[in-house]
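Hi R.,

Here's the input for the 2-acetamido-2-deoxy-beta-D-glucopyranose complex you asked about:
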Amino acid sequence: MTTFAAFLLASASIGFLFANVGAQDQYLTALSDLQQLVTSMDATLQDLKADVQDIKAALQGGCTVGNDATTSGGNTGTTSGGGEVPPSGLLVPSDSGDFTHQAALDESERFILLWKFDSDTITFEAQVQTTGFIGLGFSPNGGMTGSDVIIGWVKDGQAYLTDRYAEGYFLPRLDASQDVELLSGYENGTHTVLRFRRRLRPCDTADDKEITEDTQRIIWSFNDNDPVGLDGPDGPQYHGSNRGSKSIILLQKNPPDLDLQEGNVITFDMINPNVKVPSKETTYWCSTFQLPVLDKKHHLVKVEPILQPGNEGVVHHILVHQCTTGSNPPSGNQECHTMPWGNCRAVMAAWAVGGSGYTYPDHVGFSLGTANDPSYVVMQTHYDNPQRLSDVYDNSGIRFYYTPEVRQFDAGILEVGIQVSQNHAIPPQADTFDSTAFCYKECLDPFLQELGEPIHVFASMLHAHQVGVGVKTKLVRNGVVKTYLGRDESYDFNLQETRFLDPEITVQEGDELITECSYRTTHRPGFTFGGEASSEEMCQNYLQYYPRFKLDHCDSLPEIMHSLSFFGITQIDNNLQVVKPDSMAGTNIGVVLNQHPWTKEEAERLDQHIRSGPVVVKCKGRPGFTNLAGITGQVWNPLPEPTVLMSNSTSVSGC
Ligand SMILES: *[C@@H]1O[C@H](CO)[C@@H](O)[C@H](O)[C@H]1NC(C)=O
Ligand SMILES: *[C@@H]1O[C@H](CO)[C@@H](O)[C@H](O)[C@H]1NC(C)=O
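And here is the predicted structure with 2-acetamido-2-deoxy-beta-D-glucopyranose in place:
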């Protein structure tokens, strides 16, 4: 089965390189379907593996209540130094906690997490429908192994909280250093509520994980029984099926969802029309909306999620894509893993789990109602349904607030990244393969000069697909990386949202933008090519800035003949058949690419080869304005990372 799928995938990849356009579409669809199938089989397999691990752990001791302490060393954790975690008295918080963020971690909303943060610490409140113990962890990948875990409970009028580390699928051991502060804890008959605080940059770097602005894989669990002791066979028992993981950007810096004082604010709701959420883990649903027809310019000033009560655990993120002015919008209301995105790609608003919406900076609005503004948008909702519930109907969506009282500046969206193209090729078997895109000053400067002033970037929406694991854009000034215009080293395709930059970042004449995407393809049987289906790849950053200028896209692609020289190919024809060398003449380049003996090392070698070569820059202004031809032949000298921006791993202040 797997081999057959692999064969089909390989032939589909090869096929679509040379097929004519009609057949190519079919190949693309088939490829996309197959890759989705493989991905979902992969996910099921992971689930099954986790279950097997859990059962094994339970059999080996995690669950064998009353077993003597000598059983299977290691599996129940070791009590080192920190074994003495004193219970704290029963505490009921005297205030609401003023939490700024909230998320349901499971579809049934049994585990609700609230949080807030400042520059050094993060405070959580877990409200869980259990009278036993609860666990919350920060995982490297969504699994237990290597996670920084907090387990707490309330028993006989005492609240307990323990800082732990999971070495595998068994009871996480206690950390030698207990670094989570219990603020309050109580039970009310149905729920256990624990409030606690920890540092963002831990002092115990061995066992605690730093919480950054990157996407965090949160794991959670609970069990309806309280532990007898802290550890060993008396410690917290196996959690059974009450467990899961969720990607959340904990440190969302989105400006608060302020109440607009201005009168004259109109709302426009885009609501999913009672969508029956498919009973599968991941669904992308698209609905097209015509924006209000306005007789004069208005400004969109605020974006807010509308979550159907009860569906907070299922609706994971929502993107609003603007369709190019004058283009025909895609019709309908449908699942959309593959869509004709070309005209409706740029993301103008995005909400993700944990957030409550945002207002634009008060001197900025997104223009609606003029000839240059979008008339249609496609709203894409990601449903997260790992329990495969079959009776969920959804009427969630996004509310726009707009006003005729226009603000000082129009916001614009600038798309930077790799040009969406099949020439964007990512080899299989790569631990990390980086694609780098350049927006050179030759493209930016003429538009900045026409505008007559710098632009100020206030938000970013990073976008790669299923094998994307990192996306960032660097601002380069005078050959030095000054800062990032959006950055996530732990990117998750299944969690996309607008991220505000604080402070705003100015892009001026002479500046250049470098966007880097990292991909992991160890599980892919063949090449992954650029494209709009989620099984294909992209590498984009949609920057929101003001004042609006006339540049829409500043993309690049590695120069194809340089890339092909890695395989010894020196000449190809228009049908992507090798012409030279003679030994390969007549072979399709897709065949050559996929026949290469791919290993981690070979993928790394190709990565280096492409980086050392020239790129083609595509610079595209809005219709009616200058489109620069490609700038070819530029070779970029790699720049060091800006050390000053990195957290200092050798010394953490305050420890
Ligand atoms: C117990 O606490 C939870 C979480 O705060 C709350 O939702 C629930 O209504 C409370 N139940 C009772 C009986 O007070
Ligand atoms: C990082 O830590 C080292 C060692 O304590 C110190 O010398 C250096 O100045 C620090 N760098 C920054 C950027 O804080």
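One thing worth noting: The chain has four domains: 4-17+26-59, 96-248, 263-409, 411-648.

Cheers,
M.
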